[in-house]
Amino acid sequence: MNSTHTGNVLLTSVVFKMCVSVVTILSRSHADRNVYPSAGVLFVHVLEREYFKGEFPPYPKSGDPSNDPITFNTNLKGYPDRPGWLRYIQRTPHSDGVLYGSPTAEHIGKPTVIEITAYNRRTFETARHNLVINIKAAEEFPLPYQAEFYIKNMNVEEMLASEVLGDFLGAVKNVWQPERLNAINITSALDRGGRVPLPINNLKEGVYVMVGADVPFSSCLREVESPHNQLRCSQEMEPVISCDKKFRAQFHIDWCKISLVDINKVVPVYVTRPEPGTGILPEFGEYKPPSESLKSRDYFSDFLVTLAVPSAVALVLFFILGYTMCCRREGVEKRNMQTPDIQLVHHSSIQKSTKELRSMSKNREISWPLSTLPVFNPVSGEVVPPIHPDNYETTSMPLMQTQANLQNQITIPQQRPSAAE
């Protein structure tokens, strides 16, 4: 790392307006270097795009502004993801990335190497640096009185900025008046099951900020536990808090979601693990696979049970059904033998009478309808045949005849006037 980059890489602490020193660590390191956060205190590490632009080739034309889209990937060295206490956020490829989280006491004295890989989306090149996090013990860990606030008009990356976080801690100090006040953790509302807001009216996701102090909670913070405010919260109404005006100018706090915890009064719960039974591997030791001298298992009996037996049963049922449908039919002759003779005679006479009536109806002589007679074309002299075929079904002809003076038409004689008239 050259001297210019070394001068830009600084470990700063959050300083707020009320001259309150907070041990929150804000690191702007991008090369291989060590940082020393404290357990139980918020740790913030900013990945600046401006530095990583120097790791990639410039634009082809000199003088063009360099605004390459750069994204970051962070992971624990040798593993695909980060430690559980460390989070990462980057809104767009044109904004800085931020690593943040709150290490716990169990990580004290254990160096954590984070691999930071920068991807240039224009040239498809990468640059990699290591960040070694050495977690040390805090002077007083943990702080006995902890309060978690839900801020509705902030996103997590906005709250991680040193100026905004300093303003919030200054407002908390005014209403709490502690001797020591630290930011313990910051969590996005999306990580707590919140919904992504609609892209209208500049809505924010919301952020949870946990702070710790060394003195009991003030009377203002205790107002959220009053029965009157609890009733208003249950009715989805905003509670009445006397110190809300000290936050309202910049931070909109949901007082119904504030959490006050006194660690001195928390009863520790010890979970006893049951004794592992047979077949459970011990927690320590190397895994020893079974030897290769194990006997092979015979699956023939399993095959008979699962495939052969059901197939045989299905085949037997198929033959029974086929015999019943094909070989057990009575037939016409057997049916006639079981039918009384008088019933067969009646049935036969009905069939003969039906056939006779149908033949007689076809042979009767009646006049044809007008639409079925030949038509004479006065221009060509051609006679157009009727539209009905030779085997025309006469039973479908209309009962009323409308034409007059047709062949085979019965004419009704008209009565002539008598001579006397």
TrEMBL record:
Keyword tags: Cell membrane, Cell projection, Cytoplasm, Cytoskeleton, Glycoprotein, Golgi apparatus, Membrane, Signal, Transmembrane, Transmembrane helix, Ubl conjugation
Q: How does it sit in the membrane?
A: Single-pass membrane protein
Signal peptide range in chain numbering = 1-31
**What positions does the domain Dystroglycan-type cadherin-like occupy?**
34-142
Q: What is its main location?
A: membrane
- In terms of superkingdom, the source organism counts as Eukaryota
A GO term from the CC aspect = Golgi apparatus
Q: Which InterPro entries match?
A: Cadg (IPR006644), Sarcoglycan_alpha/epsilon (IPR008908), Sarcoglycan_C (IPR048347), Sarcoglycan_N (IPR048346)
Q: Where in the cell is it found?
A: Cell membrane, Sarcolemma; Cell projection, Dendrite; Cytoplasm, Cytoskeleton; Golgi apparatus
Which spans are transmembrane here? 303-325
The entry's family comment says: Belongs to the sarcoglycan alpha/epsilon family.
Per the entry, what this protein does is: Component of the sarcoglycan complex, a subcomplex of the dystrophin-glycoprotein complex which forms a link between the F-actin cytoskeleton and the extracellular matrix.
Name this protein carries in UniProt = Epsilon-sarcoglycan
What species was this sequence derived from? Answer: Astatotilapia calliptera (Eastern happy)
